[in-house]
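Our preliminary data section would be incomplete without showing what the modeling component actually yields. Below, a chain of 172 amino acids is followed by its predicted structure, encoded as tokens that our downstream tools consume directly.
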Amino acid sequence: MSKPLINIADVQLLPPPPGMEPQGEAATRYEARMARISPLIGAQKLGYNITAVPPGKRAFPPHSHLANEEMFFVLEGSGEVKIGETTYPIKQGDIVALPPGGRDTAHVVTNTGTAELRYLAVSTRIYPEVCEYPVSGHFGVMAELPPGADGKPGAFRFIGRPDQCLDYWEGE
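Predicted structure:
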């Protein structure tokens, strides 16, 4: 087992992995660096990351989780979190609960301050996970898979829209 602790000063914030970087118009609204902490300390049932968002940006589009619950703890900076139709100001020291659900739990964090906004995100790790994106009307299905031959963790990710659904028997 890896060492079960790490100091926040020792985590490295990285840009999104290939394929997850905001493209086109989205790049003007979304930007974040993240440090995945869970694999560094051997976490199994909870996911931990630190997310850093520059002023005027959001980390991710508004979305809800159907399986997983999240909690954000604001480490530095200020901004707002919109949950469903309600917007709440957030600042250093605030804790935000984001239970699983549908449109009423769709959430987005925006840095409305003048300095970088950093928060610790903690979530359950129930897979497969389905996320709904109410603004764009798409959904994502995600699962973590065992590591491949190269030792890197595997993942399954499918992004689609309900009207793209194939017939169960198509191609059989």
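The chain has one domain: 29-164. Residues 29-164 form a domain with the Jelly Rolls fold (CATH 2.60.120.10). Preliminary results of this kind motivate Aim 1 of the renewal.
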